[in-house]
Amino acid sequence: MSNGPLAGARRRLLVVEDDPVINQAVSDRFVAEGYDVARAWDGPGAVAACAEHRPDAVVLDVMLPGFDGHEVCRRIQVDRPVPVLMLTARAEESDLLVGLGVGADDYLIKPFRMRELVARVSALLRRVDRAAALARGEVLQVGDLRVDVPARRVWRGETEVHLTPTELDLLVCLAAAPGAVVTREKLLAEVWGWDGATGTRTVDSHVKGLRAKVGPGVVRTAHGVGYALETDAPGTAP
Fold first, then answer.
1. Are 138 and 149 within 8 A, CB to CB?
2. Which of 46, 118, 129, 138 is most buried by its number of CB atoms within 10 A?
């Protein structure tokens, strides 16, 4: 199995927010989602924490003591490019453009739903992962299942499996954390881009098609929750 960003390692997240209640709530939610979370409460602390923890993504409030989130974003991007989602209480287009101009990848306007924040960060990491995979020609290997991400081709053993684009995206999402259950809601957000959607039948129907093509024992159902890609599936091609 590859050791790249899609290989299923716990993701590191830095949460920067001067309001202690919001900081705690956001951090707790991401910990519950399976992230390793570091925290900071002001501009200088954010830059130092980013250098120390080298997070995979940063959730960054704009209004901070010391210096603001725009300056934080500018400084951390000089050290090492890192995906940034900015939190702002201002919805004016000019303010949002400033954030994007200093290196932010996305923004969310306060007040926000926690589920939307999680989905945005997850989608941001997915986009970064896919771009990185294409850049380095990543091939994912889980058991006897092999996924050539840039070529968008899949093999089970020596037999090539022909998937639809959505089925392949679904397989790559599951392969990001082999053995771990991915909820239907997360699959909807990451594969279809449906934040907060509840169209679980859409997921179920595509999983059914994926199973029919990759063969038995590969995709496990966690009833009432979601699906997982098995790491010890039988080593016979369909």
1. yes
2. 46
